[in-house]
Write a structure and sequence with these properties.
Blueprint (H helix, E strand, L loop, with lengths): L2 H4 L4 E9 L9 E12 L2 E11 L10 H7 L3 H7 L3 H12 L4 E5 L2 H15 L9 E4 H8 L6 H7 L10 H18 L9 E4 L14 E4 L21
Parallel strand pairs: 1-4, 4-5, 6-7
Antiparallel strand pairs: 1-2, 2-3
């Protein structure tokens, strides 16, 4: 399962974040979850995972909208949360070693938050050279609008539901990857290739290693078609 990806990478790091807002330069991560997948004897195995609630900075508060969306409260963060430094160490530990591929649903969002998080509390160089895969970009090529993770869960009848809690959404993304791989074996063609809505332009901040290609809501061809097959180096 996911053979085409494991031919190029030792492990897949599937992650998700919940945050106080949408601006990675100004807002904070309040929950960070990641699962590390390996392949053994042709079988997919969860080798490692963590799910951290993260305490807010002094003076920071959660909006009613975020509480209603995630079910995470300030009391939960205060009593169950870890420090930002501790969560950052967990993230750096799971990213180190071998040839990892980072996977997320709407990866642009999560990766930008992770960069700022690592810059403030850890070492952003752990991201250097790591390839990235956006499950949302693939799903947009497979199904018409709408394209929320909950729509993907319904479209593929996944068992793990989109709960807006980081660990559940990361595991739903794992299931989605497997379902899309079974449907068509081309996931590796989307590595470091992110689609964006041409109405809004290339997302900012840009990730230097990513190739951004306009992707309308309803695609009539695969995003990678017409791109040079050698555009990505896996060495």
């Amino acid at each position: 399962m996911l053979d085409s990806l494991f031919q190029k990478f030792d492990n897949l790091i599937v992650l998700d974040t919940e945050t106080t807002g949408i601006n990675p330069a100004k807002e904070e991560i309040i929950e960070l979850a990641a699962v590390r997948l390996v392949q053994q004897n042709g079988q997919l195995r969860y080798a490692e995972e963590f799910d951290d609630l993260i305490r807010l900075s002094d003076g920071r508060h959660l909006s009613t909208e975020i509480v209603n969306l995630t079910g995470i409260t300030e009391q939960m963060l205060m009593t169950q949360g870890v420090s930002k430094l501790e969560a950052c160490q967990h993230l750096m530990q799971i990213l180190r070693g071998g040839r990892p591929l980072i996977v997320a649903y709407n990866a642009q969002f999560d990766l930008c938050f992770l960069y700022y998080f690592l810059r403030r509390y850890g070492d952003p160089s752990v991201l250097k050279g790591i390839k990235m895969l956006d499950a949302l970009t693939i799903f947009k090529d497979r199904r018409p609008y709408p394209h929320k993770l909950s729509n993907a869960v319904d479209a593929y009848s996944l068992q793990t539901q989109n709960t807006h809690r980081a660990v559940d959404d990361a595991k739903a993304t794992v299931e989605l990857l497997c379902a899309m791989q079974e449907e068509e074996d081309d996931l590796d063609r989307y590595i470091n290739l992110f689609g964006y809505n041409p109405k809004f332009g290339v997302p900012k901040p840009r990730i230097g290693s990513i190739e951004y290609v306009p992707q309308p809501y309803n695609s009539f061809h695969k995003l990678y078609e017409g791109l040079a097959p050698e555009r990505i180096s896996y060495e």
